[in-house]
Design brief:
The chain is α+β, with helices and mostly antiparallel strands. It is about 30% helix and about 30% strand. Strands 1-2-3-4-5-7-6 form a seven-stranded mixed sheet. Helix 1 packs across helix 3. The N and C termini lie far apart (about 35 Å).
């Protein structure tokens, strides 16, 4: 796969649900290898996530949130999901980059940077003046990616144990305008 100067990005549709589920699982399995329990990563199955993606895409309020995909050709290589912050202590002017994932073979080629740029532009268009994101504390690769994109750790942290094991996350923040 060769690098593209300006990767194509478009809004995701329900027809993308199966591809998004595959990207979701393969990205987790590669990005979190050695950071999350291997037995958890091994049991991830894209088929289990298709319905969740269908519901997410059907329920999207494009005036405030969305899912963007990058596709240099016919194949979707990654996605960025964004919308209002999920943090109850934040005000309405704060949006959130909920997730950004790429197939591992697409890493380091500019697709993630382009997805982030488009997602942030959509957050600005929706009226948000700041954005936050949560990242696994131990995920040095992702933290470097966000820091290179102008994000900074804002001091907030949390432990999520909803998957049956503790996940230590830290919050990054970026001014949008």
């Amino acid at each position: 796969m060769t690098a593209v100067t300006r990767p194509s990005v478009r809004a995701a549709t329900v027809r993308d649900a199966a591809e998004l589920a595959v990207i979701d699982v393969r990205s987790w399995q590669a990005a979190y290898k050695g950071l999350l329990p291997q037995d958890f990563l091994d049991q991830l199955d894209a088929a289990d996530r298709v319905t969740r993606w269908q519901h997410t895409l059907q329920a999207t309020d494009w005036s405030r949130s969305g899912v963007m995909v990058t596709h240099p050709g016919h194949e979707v290589l990654g996605f960025a999901r964004f919308g209002p912050t999920r943090d109850s202590e934040e005000h309405d002017a704060v949006g959130e980059l909920h997730s950004i994932y790429l197939l591992p073979e697409a890493w380091g080629q500019g697709f993630g940077k382009r997805l982030m740029s488009v997602a942030l532009a959509r957050l600005v268009a929706a009226g948000y003046s700041q954005a936050t994101l949560w990242v696994l504390r131990s995920n040095a690769r992702a933290r470097r990616f966000y820091e290179t994109g102008g994000w900074a750790h804002d001091g907030a942290s949390k432990c999520d144990d909803s998957l049956g094991f503790p996940i230590q996350e830290i919050r990054y923040r970026k001014q949008l305008r």
